[in-house]
Amino acid sequence: REHAELEIRIMPYSDDQFMLIARDVTQLRQLERMRKDFVANVSHELKTPLTVLQGYLEMMDEPASMPPTLQKKAVGDMYRQSERMRNLVNQLLVLSRMDSAARGDIFERKVGMPQLLRQIQSEMQPLAQQRQQQLLFNIAELDMYGREDELRSAIVNLVSNAINYTQEGGEITVNWRKVGQQAELSVSDNGAGIASQHLPRLTERFYRVDSDRNSASGGTGLGLSIVKHALEHHHSQLQVSSKEGVGSRFWFRISAELMTN
Ligand code: ADP
Questions:
Q1: Residue 97: which H helix or E strand, with range?
Q2: Ligand 1 centre distance from Cα of residue 223 (Å)
Q3: Which of 178, 227, 229, 261 could form a disulfide with 154 if both were Cys (CB 3.0 to 4.6 A apart)?
């Protein structure tokens, strides 16, 4: 194999002979690196908002050094930064919950998808309204087997991305429909779109296309990795097609065996 990392040990075999033991540790090392990167990323992401908060707190400790005009901005900034940390911690919790031991058979429970989707629609509507966006849901009467909390996370992340990365006045459409023996959920927007070179990396933890744009939107880069995980548990994969300046479509299919009707 190319670039394999081997751990080699030399052991005595007999009086005048030695034995070489080679162990392939490629995967082990790769996992270690991923874990280190992950911890470094989390620390960095938490440090940035904390630095902002501390800066303001120090200024408030000496009110003379804080011009009154800055006070309003300070409160706004502090609020946004703590919101950012809250999002990050919430998403980390969702990820770790999904990472931990398999929680029973995926066929154990039925998920009433139309009901779930209507709930998500009414939860997300105010966000879209704030941005003067149209949020349309076309929902077929199809249920499936699965884990409701994970499906909810996946769909909410896709819809909130569509809202965040679409300009004011844009349009977002969610379709849940039958395709042959399968069902398909898609979220389409006519927003910013994504350049093709980024597409293969979107579901990596902490990957963001444009970190400046995203810090304004409070993004963490964890959303799509949560979606990927949740879908893997449902034997499905996230698909995306997107064009910069035109819009994006994210979708996944649920195989016939997971459909209840
Ligand atoms: P974030 O928390 O930054 O939104 P995600 O993992 O959810 O992280 O998404 C990764 C990146 O993919 C985002 O930073 C954004 O650049 C891009 N992206 C995701 N969804 C869309 C979309 N609907 N339109 C344009 N870009 C998107």
A1: helix 68-99
A2: 7
A3: 227
pLDDT digits (tens, 9 = 90+) for 80-89: 999 989 999 9
HSE on the CB side for 251, CA within 13 Å?
Answer: 19
Return the ligand 1 atom nearest residue 224 CA.
6
For ligand 1, say whether the CB of 224 is within 6 Å of any of its atoms: yes
Q: How far is CA 153 from CA 160, 223, 231, in A?
A: 10, 9, 10
Instruction: Note whether 247 and 133 are within 8 A (CB).
Output: no
Residue 214 CA to residue 197 CA, distance in Å, equals: 18
Structure ipTM: 0.98
- In short, whether 223's Cβ falls inside 6 Å of ligand 1 is yes
Which of 85, 90, 161 most suits a substitution to test ligand 1, by most atoms within 8 Å of the C-beta?
Answer: 161
- Nearest alpha carbon, ligand 1 atom 17: 209
Question: Which atom of ligand 1 approaches the CA of 166 most closely?
Answer: 24
How does pLDDT run across 201-253, given as a tens digit for each residue?
Answer: 999 988 988 865 455 566 889 999 999 999 999 999 999 999 999 999 999 99
Supply the pLDDT for residue 108.
Answer: 85
Residue found by looking up tokens 């990596």 in the block? 204
Q: Is the pTM of this model over 0.80?
A: yes
Q: Specify which residues 216 forms β-bridges with.
A: none
Per residue in 11-52, pLDDT (tens digit) is: 999 999 999 999 999 889 988 988 888 888 889 889 988 999
Distances (CA, A) of 232 to 2, 11, 30: 28, 43, 21
β-bridge mates for residue 12, sequence order: 18
Backbone angles phi, psi at 4, to 5 degrees: -75, 140
Which are the contacts of 244, defined by CB distance < 8 A and separation ≥ 6? 192, 193, 194, 195
Tokens of 173: 């459409």
